[in-house]
Amino acid sequence: MDEVLYGIRQVLKRDYKMNPVKCEASVMNAKILQGKIDLISKTIGQKLCSFLSTGNLISSSGLDLQQATGFTIVAERLNLLRYMSHFQSVHRGQFFTTMKTTTVRKLLPESWGFLCPVHTPDGSPCGLLNHLARESAILAYSPSVKPCVTPHGPLPYVSQVNAALVNKRAYIQDVLVQLGMVPSGVGSGDGQLCLGADYIPV
């Protein structure tokens, strides 16, 4: 998107240098401006289709990423379990396959409970291609007890997954506070933190 906007800007700058009056008039005309934008932005869909089918990033700037290939993989239909495991896989990136150190392949403590410690292939992708743990769930929203609102009104119940996540989160927060951690939101609006006597200062 950034490259498309940059290309549109360059076209407008070029037109302004050639004929400033005509360029100002064309910018004010929505149809002419839309035509100039369409000339540059018509390849977004083609680039996105190519990206999803091949996994190769088509970009002149590189977007400061460590790799330009290998973003997607083909879901093999050898059997049902193999096919479904593709949607639970987490890959560190092609960049790390060439590293000689084994640090990036280790299962770090912050990954316990989220990534399965044994479901990783042998060979070169060992430790780089992991899979989600059985109990982990991916959410596109923060769990809450608020009812879900639909076009037909709010739903009268909270889903079981959502309710379980809320209960687990509340339990973890209680344990952390008992161990001496300060709950978020403690303090006054002017930034002066007011702690109780039972909290351990960190």
Distance between the termini: 43 Å
Oligomer: single chain
> What are the segments in which pLDDT stays under 50 over at least 5 consecutive residues?
186-192
Shape: elongated
How many structural domains in the coordinates?
3
Which secondary structure elements does this structure contain, and how are they paired or packed?
Blueprint: H1 2-18, H2 20-28, H3 30-41, H4 44-54, H5 80-85, E1 89-91, E2 129-131, E3 149-150, E4 153-154, H6 160-178
Antiparallel strand pairs: 1-2, 3-4
Helix pairs in contact: 1-2, 1-3
Task: Give the structure's gist in a few sentences.
This protein has 6 helices and 4 strands, in the order αααααββββα. It has helices spanning 2-18, 20-28, 30-41, 44-54, 80-85, 160-178, and strands at 89-91, 129-131, 149-150, 153-154. A hairpin with a 2-residue loop joins strand 3 (149-150) and strand 4.
